[in-house]
Amino acid sequence: MSSSIQSASTSLKAPDSSQLQLNSQGQLRHFLTTEGLSKALLTDIMDVTESFSSVADKAIKKVPLLRGKTIVNLFFENSTRTRTTFDLAAKRLSADVINLNIATSAATKGESILDTIRNLEAMQADMFVIRHAASGAAHFIASHVAPHVSVINAGDGQHAHPTQAMLDMFTIRQVKKDFSQLKVAIIGDILHSRVARSQIHALKTLGAKEIRVIAPNTLLPSTPSALGVSAYTDLVEGINDVDVVIMLRLQRERMSGALLPSESEYFNCFGLTEKKLAHAKTDVIVMHPGPINRGIEMDAAVADGPHSVILQQVTNGIATRMAIMALTLGQHPSSKAL
Ligand code: NCD
User: Fold this and answer.
1) pLDDT interval class at 9 (50, 70, 90)
2) With a 6 A CB cut-off, is 289 part of the ligand 1 pocket?
3) Ligand 1 atom with least separation from CA of 81
4) CB atoms within 10 A of CB 105
5) How confident is the model at residue 132 (pLDDT cuts 50, 70, 90)?
């Protein structure tokens, strides 16, 4: 583990994936973390995302890039947006996609995750999209698959959620164009958030001017400065003059012990309202990876208000995942007619 935010999270043993995910030519083979990827590579992902965005406007929303490829979505944790947009992304690339229902799979009969993978490889799967409650799960699978098989991390424990971070970077770039002048505030349960971790790595690599994290002390990483972010426990102070506000859900399923007095007190101090948002820049954008808990982390008026780009993020999730799937399978669309 290379960053303090990771070591701050309890019993987090996620390995360093930065080398495993590139092939000998420096191209993406797996997509496991934003940590350690170059600015050029992150920018290329956003450029390819841009080129795939127009597929949604076509009468037939498909390109033939991954025709004949088999993609298996393996979600060991619940998901609405991530799973659906991975499914749609694979279909828009003309791949054959299987959504394995873990609740009805042999995993419930005691089969190990590696045996499940070996069996799916025997059916000629080309890619696994993995969501798992254990940090490091996608890395573990990536280090065991056959040489032609790619693995995409769709969220592993508290560790990383790199495709979410990339759809967030793409959304920020769509609205704000340039990262170098941006002040970004990430608000909420930073400690347990794989989304925050992946966003911070990507924002730093893309050259954001300032990254702030805002949370109660109990939900902050122990040494935020080691991560290159500044920490605030006062929302109004932290949000002052920022260009981008990213809200996070309280990850109750990952909390051990009482880290918060009550949800209403949390909302009073850290819930985003129009009044508090007025301290940010007038053209601030408000983001959230979903699912939103209205009245806990943010007011409905902000979630549905003029600064919100939350549904734009969801739309961008499809083209972003198309880009990452195509690139990890070695299909760069710039060399092909779309
Ligand atoms: C996030 C996740 O699962 O990590 N959601 C998502 O992928 N859209 C954040 C969350 O669950 O709060």
Assistant:
1) very low
2) yes
3) 8
4) 13
5) very high
Task: Assign 334 a pLDDT band (cuts: 50, 70, 90).
Answer: confident
User: From the CA of 78, how far away is ligand 1's center (Å)?
Assistant: 9
Inter-residue contact 97 to 125 (CB < 8 Å): no
9: closest CA among 192, 217, 236? 192
Q: What is the 3-state secondary structure (H, E, C) of 3-14?
A: CHHHHHCCCCCC
Q: Of 189, 235, 230, 191, whose CA–CA distance to 213 is shortest?
A: 230
Confidence class of residue 5 from pLDDT cuts 50, 70 and 90?
very low
Whether 82 is in the pocket of ligand 1, judged by its Cβ within 6 Å, is yes
* Pocket lining: 83 vs ligand 1, CB cutoff 6 Å: no
On whether the pTM is more than 0.70, the answer is: yes
Ligand 1 neighbour 153 (Cβ under 6 A):
no
State which of 33, 82, 167, 316 you would mutate to test the pocket of ligand 1, scoring each by most atoms of that ligand within 8 A of its C-beta.
82
Burial 269-297 (b: 16+ CB within 10 A, else e): ebbbeeebbeebbeebbbbbbbebbeeeb
- Name the nearest CA neighbour of 140 among 27, 12, 14, 19: 14
Domains along the chain?
2-160+317-335 (3.40.50.1370), 162-314 (3.40.50.1370)
pLDDT band at 254 (very low <50, low <70, confident <90, very high): confident
Q: Is the pLDDT of residue 335 over 70?
A: no
The verdict on the CB of residue 249 being under 6 Å from ligand 1 is yes
Token output for 167: 């759809």
Q: What pLDDT score was predicted for residue 11?
A: 37
Distance 223 CA to ligand 1 centre (A): 24
The residues, any chain, with a CB within 8 Å of residue 240's CB and separated by 6 or more, are 279, 280
> Is 290 within 8 Å of 80 (Cβ atoms)?
yes
135 lines ligand 1 (CB under 6 A): no
CA distances to 210, 240, 317 from 276, rounded to whole Å, are: 20, 9, 28
